[in-house]
Amino acid sequence: MEACSPEWQERLSAWFDGEAEEPERQAVAHHLSGCAGCAREAARYAPLRQELRARAAAETHVPPALTERVARLAPPPRPAFRRRRLTASLAAALASVGVLWTSWPSGMNDALAMDLERHHLKAFSRTTPCEFESSDPAAVKAWVERELGYAVEVPVVPGATLLGARRCKLHGQLSASLLYRHEGGKAMTLFLPPPGSPAAREAASFAGEETRCTQGPVGERICVAPRGGEQAALAVSEMETSVLLDALARLSP
User: Fold this and answer.
1) Is the pTM of this model over 0.70?
2) Distance set, CA 241 to CA 51, 184, 233 (Å)
3) Are 177 and 168 in contact (CB under 8 A)?
4) Among 215, 224, 217, which residue's Cα sits nearest to residue 247?
């Protein structure tokens, strides 16, 4: 992270995504004129997005769905989102193991679903996805507790490498996210919002009493596991639902 503080990291992210109002854009422009670190961080965004789009255009074997996800990393206005329905056979399989599946929009707060996908895709569009890089669960756990002020579990996920962690803002509050790279190169993020936070309450409300999955507006799969009270863990990836469920199952209830 080049930004001078976590707060400015988030403000720069919102500025590039087109979420900042005019007064905030002016404040960012003024700050960038005097902060070399934030100026370097801001300069990384545009070339990185351009490179992703160029690679998607040059590689004819890239699946259309991936090209679409990359294109949607650009600032708003976002295109209209299409609903996707799960096949009956997969829906039946999920029901048999006590998992609810719904297509988007599905009862999950729209802003939360978009935030989850945005943070997941943006992190893995970076050369270095993590703020704190380590494959040691104990070291990652200690970093999160030190930087965010609350304890999290850092599961070992078979077939995946723990890359580390980063901070993100969900429903306006800083939350921990754990980043994994699975065999074959596919990415997964586990979001562990602070207990009782707006995001945790919203996610717990969506899940109810059992793990529940949906598909976000950009197309990533999102699974939410309740963890008692106003707590929940969320997994986001393009991978099969069973992979997300396995990762969440490695967290204690």
Assistant:
1) no
2) 29, 16, 15
3) yes
4) 224
